[in-house]
Amino acid sequence: MPENDQELLSRLQNDDEVAYKWIYSRYAEKLFLYAMNILKHQEICEDIIQNVFIQLWEKRKENNITHLKPYLYQSVKFQVFKSFRNQHFKQEDLTRLNLVDASLNASRQIEFDELESLINSLVDKLTPKCREIFIMSRFEEKSNKQIAEELGMSIQTVKNQVSKAIKKLREQMTQEQIVIYPIIIFMLTL
Q1: What is the pLDDT of residue 145?
Q2: How big, in percent rounded to 5, are the helix, strand and coil portions of the chain?
Q3: Residue ranges of the chain with pLDDT lower than 70?
Q4: Is the CATH number of domain 92-190 3.40.720.10?
Q5: Which residues of 107-123 are buried (b: 16+ CB within 10 A; e: fewer)?
Q6: Domain locations along the chain
């Protein structure tokens, strides 16, 4: 099984049915549980998951999906809302949807906190000068020229140190961390 969703998406867009089956096996049960937590109606949830995966296959060439997991959960959420619109659900169903959505937001915050902690620990491992320049560049958002002037060095030295820091950070992260955390990519490619 491919390790990351990006590879699966790429293969899916090239009509790879095996990749489609891997995506299904990786996410169908989780998406079903997500829908069940909201609706508590098994048949409706099964239909929703089926519709999401049918649409994923049918629109594989048209969709510009960059992050598979959030896309699938958003698709299920849309189908749940559509189901609410087409049927009359009780207020408790809507409340459950809000609670599950709040829970997902809390989960995202935890992931962000973990990401921030990971970045800080990796930055702390850089050499003192490299760390100082990287922090000024990425966290304080100073230009290479500003950093060079402040530290009394050439702009090229600043560029070299930032490149060195990025290279070391990339080496210390797994590929999955780079794919899962788009903010890391943003920080490492500025």
Answers
A1: 92
A2: 80, 0, 20
A3: 1-3, 84-116, 173-190
A4: no
A5: eeeeeeeebeebbeebb
A6: 1-89, 92-190
Give the separation between CA 122 and CA 75, rounded to whole angstroms.
Answer: 35
- What pLDDT, on the 0 to 100 scale, is given for residue 21? 92
Q: Which residues contact 159 (CB under 8 A, 6 or more apart)?
A: 144
1-89: which CATH topology? Rna Polymerase Sigma Factor; Chain: A (1.10.1740)
Select from 103, 43, 95 the least CA-distant residue to 73.
Answer: 103
Residue 162's nearest CA partner among 141, 176, 183 is: 141
CA distances from 182 to 66, 112, 185, 186 (A): 10, 11, 5, 6
Indicate the residue type of 24.
Y
